[in-house]
Description:
Blueprint: H1 24-34, H2 43-51, E1 60-64, H3 70-79, E2 82-87, H4 90-102, E3 109-113, E4 126-132, H5 141-151, E5 152-164, H6 172-181, H7 190-200, E6 203-209, H8 213-226, H9 230-237, H10 239-257, E7 262-269
Parallel strand pairs: 1-2, 1-4, 2-3, 4-5
Antiparallel strand pairs: 5-7, 6-7
Amino acid sequence: MGARQKTRRGQLTERGTHVDEYDDATVALLELVWGKGFMAPGGPQNVRKLVSGLDIRDKTILDIGCGLGGGDLLLEGEHGARVLGIDLEVPLIARARAYAEVAGLSDRIEYRQVDPGPLGFEDGTLDVVYSSGAFTQTADKAGIFADALRVLKPGGSITAYEWMGNGEPFSEDMLHWFELEGLTYALQSLPAHKSLLEDAGFDEIAVTDDGGWYTQEARVEYDLLKGEMKETAMTMLGTEQYAHFLEDWAALITVLSSGELVPGFLRGKKPS
């Protein structure tokens, strides 16, 4: 999620090897916008939204697509959770481990680099499956939701923040944004997500949009990138890539404002 320069998250070569998406400049820019250790929209405040109302103290959370692990530090530091963070990219996992070590939390937060495919955890061993953005680009949502149910303990929860579609064919604005991102998002509507969670076997399901919260945040971020962050961002990226990021963020705001891109929360529980 977020403005990037023509890269593909989770892309595979013909040999099945993952191609890393995030270079150092991209990571630095996302941390500039969303905070140290954060690569997903909203930074710390969105992490708090994702676990609001959940009792996670001393519970084991699987963070799918953990990135730099900023959210995991918050989940442990503010909520006392134990965290297993997984991601496709070796450099991100290395930095996440370093951040956890500096914070003195290596005994509470574990990181693993994984390959695309089924979750490598035993049945019924985790309390919460958590993600911010990883399901957005997962075409096999039925598969990942079924696998999430498998690894959860009875009564365990799934909670995620995802970008979704509105159920209509993509407009030229959306296709333009996809082109700028360099990604093809696997966008499903809110009702489709609810059905997928039901089919996977979850109950107590809630799938809601974010009430326009990130649309407002994206406008603030865009103004910061054009204003007080401009000099720093240009130094990080160079003039050409900075201009691309700015155009990407503007295109993002267009599809958010039209309601074609729908940021939302999903939650469900594994039956006891």
